[in-house]
Design brief:
Blueprint: H1 2-30, E1 44-48, E2 52-56, H2 59-68, E3 75-78, H3 81-93, E4 105-109, E5 114-117, H4 120-129, E6 135-139, H5 141-152, H6 156-161
Antiparallel strand pairs: 1-2, 1-3, 2-5, 4-5, 4-6
Helix pairs in contact: 2-4
Length: about 160
């Protein structure tokens, strides 16, 4: 009972931190400073490392994942979804790609971002911090290979969650 209360307190603390950061980002978007690189064009954040693969169109969530992840998550910024997806596809085909390893894949979709995780701790962190309703599905390696084909069609979220 005590451990459950402690987890609940930690979760509430993370949510409060998320809300504070989100409010500060909204203020920056409404009143950008001179040194801000904000633009009216949409940006896409392609994230690829040994434990997580995903594309986000929300810089705040990409940075929260980097801050809270147990692995060193890095992201590249692209001006179109297609360029971000091409980056992910190139990573999948590289020898360093975790897709070749026989590990389960944890797939998330919140109606805004679609992501693939290979590390359970990272996905737990993501679920604790996302402000959107989220869905989780554990996939086998065989389904993971199918996911690669879906990304080539640029229909990741529609194909996995239809």
């Amino acid at each position: 009972m005590e451990s459950q209360r402690k987890v609940s307190e930690e979760l509430n603390a993370l949510r409060l931190e998320y809300v504070k950061l989100e409010k500060s980002i909204k203020v920056e978007e409404e009143h950008p400073t001179n040194d801000s690189s904000s633009s009216t064009e949409k940006e896409f954040y392609a994230i690829a490392d040994g434990d997580h693969i995903g594309i986000s169109c929300n810089k705040f969530e990409a940075e929260m994942l980097m801050k809270l992840s147990i692995s060193k998550v890095k992201y590249q910024v692209f001006d179109s979804y297609e360029k971000a997806m091409n980056y992910i596809i190139a990573y999948e085909e590289s020898p360093e790609s975790p897709m070749a390893k026989d590990r389960p894949l944890y797939v998330t979709n919140d109606g805004y971002n679609s992501s693939i995780f290979l590390n359970w701790e990272d996905i737990r962190t993501w679920f604790k911090t996302t402000a959107y309703p989220s869905y989780r599905r554990v996939m086998t390696k065989k389904e993971g290979e199918k996911w690669i084909r879906f990304t080539r069609d640029l229909k990741l979220s529609k194909m996995i969650f239809s």
